Amino acid sequence: MTEPTSARIADILRQVRDADGATILDHAALDATMLRDGTLHVALATDRAAAGRIQPLLPAAEQALRALPGVTAASVILTAHRPASAPGTAPAPAAAPGGGHRPLNLGGPGGRPAQGPILPEVRTVIAVASGKGGVGKSTTAVNLAVGLGMEGLRVGLLDADIHGPSLPRMMGLHQPPQVREGRMAPLEAWGIRAMSIGLLVDERQAMIWRGPMVMGALGQLLGDVEWGALDVLVVDMPPGTGDAQLTLAQKVSLAGAVIVSTPQDIALLDARRGIAMFEKMNVPVLGMVENMSYFCCPNCGHRTDLFGHGGARAEAESLGVPFLGEIPLLADIRASADAGAPIVISAPDSPAGQAYRALAHTVAATVRRAKEKQEK
């Protein structure tokens, strides 16, 4: 089935009118369309003044778009151009490549914002973070979250790395989330609920967004998703110490952070900065994990410390934070992540599977203690 043309979609949108007879396209421009797995995603560019007038029309627009051949569901979102600067004022920041739009909403019909407090049914939020990229943070976050589920906890996993989302591939998720009464429903896999912006865009698309756009998207992945009742929400943070980390700390009460590092000094320098950042935000550091701690030859069993060994343990001791364990460097970890089956599921008795299970068991004890305190 061929994708509906932009002209055909525009014709449908012109049929949706408000009480004054104005159509959606009288106040917005068709910005982008994509048909994926039967769901038609439509982005409309408008300004903030017109957005309030357009939003009540979006459910009717989505219903009309579902009549198109090959379309089983439709989601219309709004993007907004920054208004031009008034004479004598400072110029607006340069637009991002590809149009410079700021997303108003990512989710439900018309992307209507969530009502009430963010995450009202989530007992505990834990961030998995690193000072730099390439240390296996996302792999650790995925296996930790699934491992917590295997410990009997109700678990959610949020991919907060807007620029480089990897959760869909690692969890074997391919379909977009469903929209229910204006809120996105997280997908379920391996016993946990998961959400990532990678489920909303093509994995080959570059997210060329500035800081405010990233912060807005993260806020909506938190607040516009129907997470439901969870014992713990694990947040896979982007690397570094920037906007996303600050946004998360401002929007939710973090119970703690798990810092992932490799043994070598250059990675530990950045891990130290990450710990310092969470301390400044009054977020407890639950401990450090040494990833890629050692390599065991699959043929002869000889152990090699490719990146050194024990650096994260020594750093944790010097900083006065717990050391949560060592994760070996194994090809099976990479293969399981690429295949969409976390190694705690695909090979739970392997050295890596046992290491991640031990990490999850330790963190689960912390979550249960926090839960008991809340219930008292």
From TrEMBL:
An annotated GO BP: iron-sulfur cluster assembly
Keywords assigned by UniProt, alphabetized: ATP-binding, Hydrolase, Iron, Iron-sulfur, Metal-binding, Nucleotide-binding
Composition bias, Low complexity: 83-96
Biased composition (Gly residues): 97-113
Classification via CDD domains: Mrp_NBP35 (cd02037)
Region listing for Disordered, in residue ranges: 83-114
One Pfam assignment: ParA
InterPro entries: FSCA_dom_sf, MIP18-like, Mrp-like_CS, Mrp/NBP35_ATP-bd, NUBPL-like, P-loop_NTPase, YlxH/NBP35
Binding site residues for ATP: G131, K132, G133, G134, V135, G136, K137, S138
UniProt superkingdom: Bacteria
The keyword ATP-binding belongs to this UniProt entry's keyword annotation: yes
GO MF entries: 4 iron, 4 sulfur cluster binding; ATP binding; ATP hydrolysis activity; ATP-dependent FeS chaperone activity; metal ion binding
Every MIP18 family-like domain range: 7-76
Membership in a protein family: In the N-terminal section; belongs to the MIP18 family. In the C-terminal section; belongs to the Mrp/NBP35 ATP-binding proteins family.
PANTHER family assigned to the protein according to its UniProt record, in alphabetical order: IRON-SULFUR PROTEIN NUBPL
Subunit architecture: Homodimer.
Functional summary from the UniProt entry: Binds and transfers iron-sulfur (Fe-S) clusters to target apoproteins. Can hydrolyze ATP.
The protein's name in its UniProt record: Iron-sulfur cluster carrier protein
